[in-house]
Each structure stands twice: as structure tokens, then as C-alpha cells.
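HOLO CASE FILE
Compound: iron/sulfur cluster
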Amino acid sequence: MKKKTMLDKIWENHEVYSEANEPSILYIDLHLIHEVTSAQAFEGLELANKAVRRPDLTYATMDHVIPTSPDRWNIENPVSKEQIEALIRNCKNHGIKLYDLDSVEQGIVHVMGPELGLTQPGMTIVCGDSHTSTHGAFGSLAFGIGTSEVEHVLATQCLRQTKPKSLEVAVTGELKPGITAKDLILGIIAKYGTDFATGYVIEYTGDAIKKLSMEERMTVCNMSIEAGARAGMIAPDETTYQYLKNRLYTPKEEKFESLVAEWKKIFTDEGAIYDKRVEFHADDLIPQVTWGTSPGMGTGITDLVPDPESFTGPEKQENAKKALHYMGLESGTPMTDIPVDVVFIGSCTNGRIEDLRQAASMAKGRKVAKHVRAMVVPGSGNVKAQAEKEGLDVIFKEAGFEWREAGCSMCLGMNPDIISSGQRCASTSNRNFEGRQGRGGRTHLVSPAMAVGAAVCGRFVDVRDWVPAQLSNLVVAEG
Ligand SMILES: CC(C)[C@H](C(=O)O)[C@@H](O)C(=O)O
Ligand code: SF4
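Model generated. C-alpha cells follow.
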């Protein structure tokens, strides 16, 4: 029998129609929607006089445009306000469950789905949002779609898709103390570039990956899209099942056990051939910081801002030159000499409870540097509530961080949380494009630990020098 990859298996389980040299039609198990990419889709649907085929497989949240201040229903921007109103209207008209700002379940779509147990192994999951790849951490095939595809899925619960190729990213060795899942994915993208996975679904394998918690796996899969991938995935295992047990939307007791039996079939057969394979050695990885305007323009904290001439080919050299100009950096500057004005801890990359625990363990008893504005934004209402139960909010506030309501916040300039032109931000998010956090703003991508280091010292520091033992074991028992 032909050996199959995990991608092959999930694909075959969902293919409702296929024809040679044509895209297949895939059945979609879970459709997540948010305010930015759904309004036009509903409009199209209504114009065509169609109903939502499976409102029971469609879940909505509000995350991108909402303020993260306590009065967050008070949306001043008229476009944002209309997007939120349209989402409320559309969900009501079509019988779709919406987690709005009054519910504790509301949050960034890629934090909320997994947390509620909506995201499960073996599923096909789509959302009009590129970072849908996050959900692949559970061994699902999860990818972002455009607004016209959102309409198609709403109408049919199916999607026309060409099967992507498979790419194994094998992570050998282990993450050393102080090195996080964020450093791992930034390191992989810095090494292989932002397009090495274009046209592929990445499957991350290796012991270092197996040892990651679910939340760390989500951080890795989240940024697969920044490597060009269609999706990222990790085979489900005990860690996955344990995480999903007793979540709001996972079945209970025997039903759960029989689902686990199904989930155990989702793995890549031994000897199956991926279309492409790369290896990454985790042993020598050090904390990562980006210096440029793409997630691949990154380096280790002990390095210097690179010389554009050190890149091969005129295009890469020109890109590096342009990026350094935008970022206001000179080559040869030690990364640890770069000062920061703003620190943002949050987003669907690093806004989960373990991220906040890690950040709090670093911030405890320390103070944010005087000239720095630092904020912590939980990825969901549930993350916020849990953090408050554990007293993490108090640690942050005492250290001088702002403690905000859940949302995408400063990850992208679509809501009031933005940085000003010329300001430099250490951010735990996933994109450092020009103007991403506000026009003229300069973004450096880092882990939550590195973000706290930058907040306290007012510049980037090597957090391995900071009680590394605290960082080596981040998972605190839930209280
Ligand atoms: C607004 C949305 C469509 C966008 C995405 O697709 O990723 C956003 O979430 C982002 O991170 O840039
Ligand atoms: S947190 Fe950032 S990356 Fe994630 S969905 Fe929101 S805007 Fe996109």
C-alpha cells in the first residue's frame, strides 16, 4: 500500500470531488469568521438569495478592529464600527454563533478556536485570515482563504482547492533554556527565507517538536505562512489529546475516547515521501530578533545588524539596504545596542496563557524602563481571566505594563493601538512589514521573554542571562 503523509490522509478524507488536472472540492469541517473579511461574503450570499449551508459549523468572533480599552464597544472609526455592526447582523440573520465583546470566550480567532476545542485533529479548517495555519498545530489542515472563498464556504461548506505539496521541516536537537518556540520559527525563517515553503504544507517533525506544548506548537504553526506555506501542521499526540480533553466543544468521556482513537490514525506513515525536506538544528539556536521589514530578516541577539553587502545577489542586497533605511539602523550595530520605545506582548502568535506566564516570570519584581510604553494584551477573554486568576495582571501592572482587553491590538494598525512614525517596537507578533503597527513604525519580532527584556532594559538584551531556569520550564500547573 502507498505510504501516505498526514496531508494525504486529511486531504483524502475530505475530497468530495476530484478530476485529473483540476482543483479538488474539499469538505470543510470548521469555518471561523471575523469582522474584517466576512461582510462582503455575506453580502454576496444575500444578493444570490442563498442561506448559510452549515451555520452549526461556523463560528464568529470580533478581534481585529476593536479597541482593547475597557470601553471597547465604543468604536470611533466609522469603517470599523460598520464592520462590527455587519458581523452582528450577519450572525443573527444566519444563526451563527458569535462571541462578541460581552462574552469571555471572545478573542483573536486563532486563540479562541483552539481554546474552545473547536479546532480538532484531522479537520479541515478555514478562515478569511492568513494565520489560520495556527490550527495546524493540532494535526488539522488549516489555511486562510479570501473573501470570495469565504462566501463559497458559507454557501456550500466546500471549497475548490489544488492540493499543495508536502514539505517536512525536521527539527533535530533540542531547544536550550531560554530559547522559545518563537525563536525556533524565527530561526527557521531567517535560515530558509520567506518563500522556501511557497506552494507547500509544512509538517514539523522531530523530538524538539514533540516536546513542545500545544501553545508552543501553535506559535510555530502560526508563522508557517511567513515562510510562504499554505499551512503548517504537527501530528497529534498525547499532548494534543490532553489539551483537548474537557474543552467546551470537545465531546466528553467515551465519545472523547472514541474520537481519540480516530485521531490516532492521523500521522505520516513511516517511509512516506515528502515532496521536499529541510532540517533545522535547534541545539545552537539563540534568542532571535528581526532587524528588517520581513520576518526572514532576523538574527541572533548576540549578532550585529548585518551589512547589506553580505547578502548574495543584487536583489537581496537592495532589499536589505531598503529595510535598514526604513528601520533606521546602521550595519555593524550590536543588536543589544538597539533601543526600543514600545513593547507589545500579545497577538495570535504569542498571546496565550503560557506566553503571559513566561512574560510574567520575567517581569516579576522588575520595572519597565522609564521611556518605554509597554503593554500586555491577552489573546482572548479566557486567557485574560486565567491570567488574572493567577495574579499575572498584578505582576505586569506593578512592573509598569498596561494590562488590556483581548484583541489583535498592536499586531496590526487596524484599531486604536498603534505606534507613531519613527517609533521602534519590540513585538511578539508575526509581521514586521513597513507600517504594520502604524505608519512609519518600526517593528522587531521577538519572543515574549525577549520583549520583557527589552521593556525593562529599554533595549534588546540576551534573556539567557536572566535566570534561565525560569524559562526552561514554562508550563505552570493551571490554578
Ligand atoms: C485582516 C486579515 C485579513 C489579516 C490576515 O489575513 O492575516 C490579518 O489578520 C493579518 O495578520 O494581517
Ligand atoms: S493577532 Fe495579528 S496576525 Fe493574528 S489574526 Fe490578529 S492581526 Fe492577524
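CASE NOTES: The chain is about 35% helix and 15% strand. Residues 78-94 form the longest helix (17 residues).
CLOSED: yes
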